[in-house]
């Protein structure tokens, strides 16, 4: 039972991260492999603040603000120009973030990470185990999903869709395209911050490996499988891929090859979807 | 009285002089047709006026204000909007949303309002849909609100471009070849549309190749050739000018 709850909680956290990636990839159309790094910034921010005695809601709020700002700063060059080269820039962001996580020892605990992150407490209610935490993570996913849905059906969502279709025509209509994109990027960063805050407090231990390039690529894979540009895609992908990982763990194979086998399977799935179903299970064509 | 003044504008692309020391003024509520052979600089002068290209020398002033280096969105807010020769519709959006996105009103166009004031945003959306629908009716596309722009006929697409440019609320409207490629019926609809815009009091600048249509809609004509503004005058005077006729028809233009 706990095993299953844990799977749901992690899939929910990754769904929130997938929404973050979806906003950049599916909605603005810039391909990011740095969303795990942004989530990492959120996780470290939350952990450090909580270990210094800050209550969870405030720590999470700070993580959201910091991640929104960092996501905007790191995507700004791509938002100004056409976004084709952003995958390179975002790769750089990811590497820099990982290097900072490893080397800023005083703050991040270096390669050994931070452990003993306090249990979440909101207004006297504690969330010590999966049984309680799932309420929090589900609530966060619901709020993020509702936010995404409201965003997309608003005039702003239509504006974003129009920018994807024909940016020049949007400019000609007197709209500020850069401002609109910065808004999405901030929301995307905020989502990664929420995911990071949940991850740090649920696992209660974080290290640089939790937010490295593999995790960023994993999220992109989840989004490709689930389908970009839709809310359903951002949720189906993480649940499906993490279920596959769980099955692998159950199958009786030597533990040394579980990791590589999982990478291999993810890689094959990614290529297969790119070739035969680029819109994913429930997405729209990029 | 004058509301657009272009002074000594020059723009080069490599060795090509797209606009060569062009100067002219346009009075409010007048319809001016821009004519000239292919590559004459007609679209380029539109691009200079709307800020899509910046001239090397010269200035553009609108209602007494220098806008030569103003941002594109500032120009739209001041009342200058355009269509494109190659339409640039949002093909995958409904006709209604094509117009809605272009409405002057910025309400509902930011993420915080959209997410944290959902009921207010829903009300804004309803109001904007009504405004956009009214504009579609105005251009004769009232029956096509929910159709994807990409699914419309070419004539309907061109009318949708008119609705979009009207949505900006601009009073100086630049139409780049609004009648090109239209069959007889759609052509008459478009000419009628242009007359309706004139009656609304819009100041119009229109690239138009067909001399008969120029005579039907223009108060004034600007004749461009190889980047030079060769002449400015009434349609009758320009069409009667033999020199200009030789330049224009000597190029093997199809009319
Ligand atoms: N962005 C650009 N880069 C390079 N050359 C350009 C550019 N825009 C225009 N030109 C050149 O400038 C000249 C004028 O072009 P412009 O588009 O203004 O002509 P036009 O009068 O609109 O012609 P048409 O009737 O074919 O639309 C042409 O020789 C064109 O090739
Ligand atoms: Mg042209």
UniProtKB/TrEMBL annotation, chain A:
Residues spanning the membrane: 7-34, 46-73, 85-104, 133-151, 182-205, 235-251, 257-276
Membrane topology note: Multi-pass membrane protein
Keywords per UniProt: Cell membrane, Membrane, Transmembrane, Transmembrane helix
Xref: Pfam families: BPD_transp_2
Main location: membrane
Entry's localization field: Cell membrane
This protein's name: Branched-chain amino acid ABC transporter permease
Organism of this sequence: Azospirillum oleiclasticum
Entries under PANTHER family matching the protein: HIGH-AFFINITY BRANCHED-CHAIN AMINO ACID TRANSPORT SYSTEM PERMEASE, HIGH-AFFINITY BRANCHED-CHAIN AMINO ACID TRANSPORT SYSTEM PERMEASE PROTEIN LIVM
InterPro entries registered for this protein in UniProt: ABC_transp_permease, LivM-like
Organism lineage string: Bacteria, Pseudomonadati, Pseudomonadota, Alphaproteobacteria, Rhodospirillales
Keyword Membrane: yes
UniProtKB/TrEMBL annotation, chain B:
Membrane-crossing residue ranges in chain numbering: none
Cross-referenced SUPFAM superfamilies: P-loop containing nucleoside triphosphate hydrolases (SSF52540)
Highest taxon listed in the record's lineage: Bacteria
Residue ranges of every copy of the ABC transporter domain listed in the record: 4-251
GO MF annotation, one: ATP binding
UniProt keyword terms in alphabetical order: ATP-binding, Nucleotide-binding, Transport
Pfam families in alphabetical order: ABC_tran
Protein name: ABC transporter ATP-binding protein
Lineage per the UniProt record: Bacteria, Pseudomonadati, Pseudomonadota, Alphaproteobacteria, Rhodospirillales
